[in-house]
Amino acid sequence: MNFASDNVYGIDPRIMAAVTEANSGTARSYGADDLSVAAEAKLSEIFETPVRAFLVATGTAANGLALSSISSAFGAIICHAEAHIFCDECNAPEFFTGGAKLLGLPGRQGKITPALIESCLKSFVRGEHDPKPMAVSITNASELGTVYSPNEIRAIADLVKPRGLRLHMDGARFANAVAGQGVTPAELTWKAGVDVMSFGGTKNGAMLLEAVVFFDCALAEDFSHRRMRAGQLMSKGRFLGAQMLAYLEDGRWLENANKANSLARRLGAGLADFPALRLYAPVEANEVFALMPEALYDKLLNSGVVCGRWIAAGVDEGEALVRFVVSFATPEDSVDRLLSLLPEIT
C-alpha cells in the first residue's frame, strides 16, 4: 500500500517499449532526430497551436529554465508559498535566472488569486531598490491536488499581462489537471493566457520526461542555448522523443491521468466516510490530503501503509495532515485494503 508519491511506481510498459524500439539502428544526435522533431509537432497538435517544445530530463530543470526565459536576474517571480519552485527545488529557479527573487503567497488550497497577486504588486514602491516584478508561476495541478480552472487562470493573466508580467505554469501533473477539469489542454494554457509551461510526463508513466513548451514562441529564441548551458541537451535525445510520442499517442497521457484521478476520488470518498478523518482540500487530481489524529497516522505507518506527512496551515495540535498520492500504476486493491484497514485501527 504505497501512496508516498506518483514517482514510486515504474514506467508505462508502452512507453518502455517505445524506448526499446528507439534503441535500434542510428539517429541524429542532440535532439535533431526524427522522434524529437515529431514530438514537438505532436505537442503543437495537442495544444491546437504552433508551439516550441524543448525536451529535458527533470521537472526542476524545466521549471528553472522556463522561468529564466521570462525573468532576468533582477526580477521577481510571484508564486504560491507551497509551490515546488519555492519549497522543493533547492534554489534552482534562482540559479537558472541568475538571481531572480521568488515571492511565495499564502493562497488557500494551494492556489493564488488575483487579489493576492495585486496586493503583492502594490508592495513594490521602492523603484530600483526593489526587484522588478516579471513573472507569475502557478502550479496545475497544485501541490495540494487542486486545479486551476480556465477562468481562474484567465483572471490572473488579465491582471498581470497589462503590467508586463509573463505567466508560467508548472505542469508536473498537468495531465491530471486536464483530466480532472474535462477541458482541453489549450483551454487550460494559452487560451487562458499562459506564456510558457513545464509539461510533465515522469509522474504519469514516463521514465524521465519533461518539456518546456512555449506558447509565445518569441520567448524561445535563445532557449536552445539555455538548455545546452544547463546540461539538459541530451546527446541521445531520441530516447526523450520516443517517450513523448508514446506518452501522447492515442491519448495515453490522459488515459493514465484519468485512472489515477479516479482512484484518488475513490480513496478520498472512502476516507471522508470515517469520523476520525476529514479532507483538507477537495480531490481534483491524483492527490488526497486528510487530517487525522497523530496516533492514527502512526497506526497507518505501523500497518504497512506508505504515506507522507505534510506541513500546511490550519493543522491543530495533535493532528497530522497526511498526503496520499495515487498513480496510473497504483493497484486498485491498495485503495480497497487501506479503506478496509481503517475500521480495524480507528
How would you sum up the global shape?
A: globular
> Which strand order do you get reading across the main beta sheet?
1-7-6-5-4-2-3
Helical content (DSSP H or I, runs of 4+): 25-40%
Q: State the end-to-end CA separation.
A: 18 Å
Question: Biggest β-sheet, characterized?
Answer: 7 strands, mixed
Category by helix and strand content: alpha/beta
What this model shows, in words?
- The protein is an alpha/beta fold.
- The chain contains 13 helices and eleven strands.
- The protein has helices spanning 13-22, 34-47, 59-68, 84-87, 92-97, 114-121, 150-160, 174-181, 223-229, 238-248, 252-272, 294-302, 332-345; strands spanning 52-56, 75-80, 101-105, 132-139, 166-171, 196-200, 210-214, 278-279, 287-293, 308-310, 319-325.
- A seven-stranded mixed sheet has the order 1-7-6-5-4-2-3, sandwiched between helices.
- A hairpin with a 7-residue loop joins strand 8 (278-279) and strand 9.
- Helix 1 runs antiparallel to helix 10.
- The radius of gyration is 20 Å and the shape is globular.
- The chain starts with 12 loop residues before the first helix and ends with a helix.
